[in-house]
Amino acid sequence: MKIIAIVVTYNRLSLLKECIIAIETQTRRVDELIVINNTSTDGTEEWLNEEKVNHITIENKGGASGFNAGIKLAYERGAKWIWMMDDDAIPHADALEKLEGGVHYFNACKINVGFFASNVLWTDGRPHLMNKTYEYDLKKEIPSCFNMPTSGIYKLITGATFVSLLLSAKAVEKIGLPIKEFFIWCDDVEYTKRIVFADLWGVFVENSKVIHKTPANYGSNIFEDSPKNIWKYNYGMRNELYTRRVYKSTGSFYRNVFKRIFVWPFKIISKRKDNRWLFVRMIWSSSIAALNFRPKIERVEDNKQA
What we know:
- Helices cover 39% and strands 19% of the residues.
- The protein folds into two domains: 3-212, Spore Coat Polysaccharide Biosynthesis Protein SpsA, Chain A (Alpha-Beta Complex), CATH 3.90.550; 227-291.
- Strands 1, 2, 3, 4, 5, 6, 7, 8, 9 and 10 form a ten-stranded mixed β-sheet that branches.
- The chain starts with a strand and ends in a 15-residue tail after the last helix.
- The protein is of the alpha/beta class.
- It is built from ten helices and ten strands.
- The protein has helices spanning 13-24, 44-50, 63-76, 95-108, 169-175, 187-197, 230-247, 250-262, 264-271, 276-291, and strands at residues 3-9, 32-37, 55-57, 81-86, 89-91, 113-121, 134-135, 154-159, 165-168, 201-212.
């Protein structure tokens, strides 16, 4: 079973080095590691060349574009499973071994799993707020193998992030690639939801652990976040509305557009301590942008490699 690891990086060389060491010292070694360099300007390209790390450098069009390129490349190189993460993800030594254990367990049950998600923690061991998984809530019969005593470490989910996600090549064949136009935020949630809605399963693996080494344990919060991150919200809020339109309903989409334009500004004004109008304008602009945001999903050719 060929597993290729994909790491997307941009201007975090020290963390990238740590991430690569963690991948190369796994108890289950990857068959290949590919770094997707989003045109870093901090010496990353020079270091990758000096250390002869397998990589490609692409124009920086955000993390979504990096994962799009990485999955496509890994698929073309014959990966059966693609292990994905950002450069600030530091997997425990047995993280991949535990994910692969899930592959074997569900193969024995004859269950088609599209992805396995690791248990993402912050540096203090608590769950990382940015990397929550989405509880399975679809009206579909649950396979009996989830009720076996040995299945306790596995949990069905409908969405996860790209911080240590093991992706099936079969899922790539069936649903295509991440939407690179998302640029940043929600690309992973949309993609994993797309997999589950295509009648494949998503599984959380509790004992596959990875440290997401961010400066603080935080999630997105428009009422408290710094204005320096507002550019991320411009993408993220638009992308979340797109995902709602596709995987919930058109009615839910328009109700939320209405709330964001007419209700959320009052919440922002009452809850934020500063930069209120900056965030109000962001809510308006991202909601309006979502109205006509209908990106095309890229497909891959059938994998002809063994």
